[in-house]
Design brief:
The complex is a heterotrimer of chains A (237), B (212) and C (252). Chain A has 237 residues and is an all-alpha fold. Chain A is built from ten helices and no strands. Chain A has one domain. In chain A, helix 6 runs parallel beside helix 7. The longest helix of chain A has 31 residues. Chain B is an alpha/beta fold and 212 residues long. Chain B has two domains: 124 residues, Rossmann fold, CATH 3.40.50; 66 residues. Chain B has a five-stranded parallel β-sheet, with helices on both faces. In chain B, strands 2-1-4-5 form a four-stranded antiparallel β-sheet. By secondary structure, chain C is mostly helical. Chain C has one domain. Chain C is 78% helix and 0% strand. In chain C, helix 2 packs antiparallel against helix 7, helix 3 packs antiparallel against helix 4 and helix 4 packs antiparallel against helix 7. Chain C starts with 9 loop residues before the first helix and ends with a helix. The chains are: A mainly alpha (237), B alpha/beta (212), C mainly alpha (252). At the A-B interface, helix 1, helix 4, helix 5 and helix 10 of A face helix 2, helix 3 and helix 6 of B.
Chain lengths: 237, 212, 252
Amino acid sequence: MNQPLNPQRRPAIGMGALFAATLKRDLKLSLRRKSELVNPLIFFLMVITLFPLGVSPEPGFLAELAPGVIWVAALLATLLSMDSLFRTDFDDGSLEQLLLSPQPVMLVVCAKVLAHWMLTGLALTLVAPLISVMLFLPAEGVPGLMLSLLLGTPTLSLVGAIGAALTVGLKRGGVLISLLVLPLYIPVLIFGTGAVQAAVTGLPLDGYLALLGALLALGTVLAPLAIGAALRISVSG
Amino acid sequence: MSQTMLKVENLFCERDDRVLFDQLSFEVDGGEIVQIEGANGSGKTTLLRILSGLSRNYEGEIYWQGEPIEKVREEFRAELLYFGHQPGVKALLTPEENLHWYCALHASLDPARVQEALEQVGLRGFEDVPCHTLSAGQHRRVSLARLYLSDARLWILDEPFTAIDKRGVAAKEALIGRHVAQGGSVILTTHQDLQGSGAVRSINLDRQGERG
Amino acid sequence: MVEKKKWLPRWFYQLASPRWCYQICGKLLPGFAVAALILLLGGIVWALLFAPADYQQGNSFRIIYLHVPSAILAQSCYMMMAVAGAIGLIWKMKVADMVAKSCAPIGATMAVLALLTGAIWGKPTWGSWWVWDARLTSMLILLFLYLGVMALNSAIESESTAAQASAVLSLVGLVNIPIIKYSVDWWNTLHQPATFTLTERPAMPAEMWVPLLMMVVGFYCFFAVSLMLRLRNEILRRERRAGWVRDLLLSK
């Protein structure tokens, strides 16, 4: 039967467990919806394919274009998958339960963003070498590309999640998210492509990676606050 | 066990240019069932969402055990069980996984009791099928199983009996009765008459609307 | 309602009352309107007729008398919008929400004006209407930020939710603006090594910068006027069911 009320509450095993549970839950949910899982990757590949077709298949030209194209495509692919981050939770009421938890919302939010990143940003980073071959990116640039994606895409997920949280209460948030979030992605894009170009020309990468890391650190500290506030506002509305 | 749990003072809420309630004041004591009544659109759900802390579009004061609720949000949430329109059940997860996540959200709950709770709501044998294969009523039962797990003192239930069969309703009513007997409080909306759960106080929002 | 805190001055709470705010705006409006008119007219006449021509760019440089004030205003307007939004978020102050909402279109207009004048200036200076100059690019991104806030505000039906959501977004934008600015500057030096920069001019003579200062102050006064007009409109619209608004409308 029910526990007696006002019990000696079990010590709050709390935060780590909740983080792990949420991460596991979100990964599990994504893995059970396999079609949606690969959509960002397919989209990424397709956008990449458009450039040789639309601009020129000439290797030298593509190699020059490659850092920017790959980063823009990664950015759009992340954005595409962003809308669903909180939407299903909002629709079925899980988001309400999440916000009513005595545990800090930021924790759950971080876990959800991490799960999202593992299935988009990390996946994009892993297929990046394949893409760089298709776009004739010189081999020297590949480690730089992967490192910059590895450090940059989590920031994209964090910032995108703010947009997702702000628009989750709206029937159609898809286009709106892009309007809200794309301008905020510009610094990541600039430093990300800068890193790849530096890697291609054999310049030191440290500065770029440090900047991307700084953006990520700032995002990790501030974005969950904004996401939590935005979720409460959206659910309240 | 009759100390005041929740106290509402001069609550005012409007939605789409319509005043839902104005100067609404009431108290909910331990061991009490409060039923919110009113026609469709009278703001029952809005009121429950405000009380639970989900909606902040209101004016007025809400106190939890004598403290303004903004000051004791976390303590309040630890003592609250909210059952909303959407059951908060993930269709792709199994009932067991759903409840385990709920236990993670409320660290004071014991995941080991999930099985027992599922048995109580008659979902034995359905623990590990995805919820989307369950019927609408079973779906809601997954969420209702939280009532058996919960150690919260205040239950806020929005239409808890929708899509539940007669026997299920009787069991839930008995559960609510036990909860208040132990000193807990329940605020709920329902279109059914509550039977056998002791004294039920009702607050009618229609009359509120006329006054406001 | 606004929770009273001891360390906040009394006028802060008075501002929170839409009615008081409506009245004080009404009282301040004429003064600011006259100041804006005098400063803008005086500044324009001085700038176009009496200020000396630039030794490098000739008369085409005179567009800075529109470009610079609008660019400055576009930036400070965003700051004001974000700060007002934050006040609205923290103290649940309706008037602050209304200020934030009224700021957005003005700021966006200023950003457009800065971009247009930048483009017009670019034609004689660089020989093309658009150059990916760091300042112009930053201004374009600022315009995008404004458009995002406005789009979000209009997409959400509930007014208080819309105000809160826009406030969060503009705060996120505010944190990002320096980062964006820095990254764009950096990108610019990488791709366009030191071309001719627009506004950083070595020691402008007084006949040049005094009218510029007049224009900047005039723009601020004009901003105050249009903000107060918009704010008064917004207050009337939102408080249309309050007794004092009815009395006011009936008495006219």
